[in-house]
Design goal:
The structure is a homodimer.
Chain A lengths: L17 H6 L11 H15 L6 H8 L13 H13 L11 H18 L3 H4 L7 H14 L6 H32 L4 H17 L4 H9 L6 H20 L2
Helix pairs in contact in A: 2-4, 5-7, 5-8, 5-11, 8-11
The structure holds a DNA duplex.
DNA sequence: ACTGCCGGTGTACGCCGTACACATCAGTGC
DNA sequence: GCACTGATGTGTACGGCGTACACCGGCAGT
């Protein structure tokens, strides 16, 4: 029996999205808890102690309420995290629209990276492109900047996805390496190389990675993440420009 | 103060890396469990039911052993996941070295994407660049292909990171969208748009996303992920070529 | 035959997300 | 003024998770 439109017990959720609920006038402005306060507290925990420290119980404790209280505002932990991500995106500085498409995209990329670096847990939870009010502001800005250059809609999307894809992947590497560094308490790149040496040297001594080993000996600037990011970003932007004749 | 060899309670782990242990001759070939069998079983679970279904208990059940048995091979769940990821990278087809740097990098990117699409859970656990034997084979291949073009080591790394960053970020978007589709049982892009409509239309009706809304009306090819990926990839490669005069 | 060690077992603990019934309290219609 | 009602926060409890730790059986070297 195909799950035919059960007239009552339908298959899906209440179907009012988190974002829609959020913007409805708060029925009672007299409450101690708000979605905003919840998001804020959760983000604070994640920033300070990592995403794993964000627990419904811990969150409740920080807010001074019972563990289940937050469930009046989010349907579960997944929605809590969506809320946190949207909260962080809400702080993206999108103020100045810049002039050319390239400057706009570049600024967008740089700000996105800064956001991820300020809240490293976001790289584990965000997709480069997803649907929440503040996340949608990103493609909105990009599309507006790219309009009027003769690109059709699909190509515009491809350009957007290329840039944000690069940003996301690139910053994921960066954040992961940072976390590794911090976990072991290595301060600079030099210490990192020393700390990594034991595990690394075994692999290198297998002789299976000659080209990579050569890199390890020759590299000098590998501790400058800004340079790495911006160099890659400029490659991506240049590629887009030449590829689409912008 | 150099952390002087604390004679007893030293600060770090036993300090023999997973990979080193793995390659030491299996002391007793008579065992029912091996790291390989564990990785294989865990990957099978993740492929079939998602990463969340991979549980020490579930894994043990599938292997026909007690829940704690796997802990003789991995130090905890984190190492299990490292093992899984390395296992998957071990299946990357790195066979033919191709001729030019561009073809090599392009093939690498395409194969990496295929790998992530075949094991979607990897995008949540992998960083575009990390240290395990089979993961290291990727930069090794790339560095070998890029050698001899007059690029210094740092630039080579930047190129590598740019490409893998793009691949990782791009495929993360793709996998996430796929998961969303599958979760709701939407088969094609058309159904997806219909299913997404309720949640989407609220956001669109706010009037805050005019440029994005225009895209939604005009786009026609947005369901072709291959085209999107390869277009972006070609942009990235072209950008690298022009930027570094390759 | 004895012994030590390696691989698998069994039990148990603390923490997690969250379902569900209940208490409380603000604003409304009479 | 007051009972009513719905929204908001509480308390309790359950099942499942990762994993610490003590245990045991069987093979290896003597």
């Amino acid at each position: 029996m195909s799950t035919q439109q059960a007239p009552s017990g339908d298959s899906d959720k209440p179907q009012v999205s988190l974002w829609e609920r959020l913007e409805r006038p708060a029925p009672a402005p007299r409450t101690t808890l708000t979605a905003h306060r919840i998001a804020e507290a959760a983000v604070a925990i994640a920033d300070a102690e990592g995403l794993d420290a964000v627990t419904m119980r811990r969150l409740a404790a920080d807010l001074g309420v019972a563990p289940m209280a937050a469930y009046r505002y989010v349907s579960g932990k997944d929605e809590l995290i969506e809320l946190m991500v949207d909260f962080v995106y809400g702080q993206l500085p999108l103020g100045a629209p810049a002039e050319g498409w390239r400057d706009t995209m570049r600024a967008l990329a740089v700000h996105l990276r800064a956001m991820h670096l300020a809240h490293p847990w976001t790289v584990r939870t965000t997709t480069p492109f997803s649907l929440s009010p503040n996340q949608l502001a990103v493609p909105e800005r990009a599309f507006a900047a790219l309009a009027g250059h003769g690109l059709d809609a699909d190509t515009t999307m491809a350009v957007f996805r290329t840039v944000t894809g690069y940003v996301h992947g690139s910053v994921t590497t960066e954040v992961t390496l940072d976390a590794l560094r911090r976990k072991h308490g290595w301060s600079d790149g030099h210490q990192t190389r020393i700390g990594l040496a034991p595990q690394m040297s075994f692999l290198m001594n297998t002789g299976r990675y000659p080209a990579y080993q050569r890199y390890l000996h020759e590299a000098t600037r590998k501790d400058d993440p800004d340079w790495q990011f911006e160099t890659g970003l400029d490659c991506v932007l240049t590629g887009i420009a030449t590829h689409f004749g912008l």
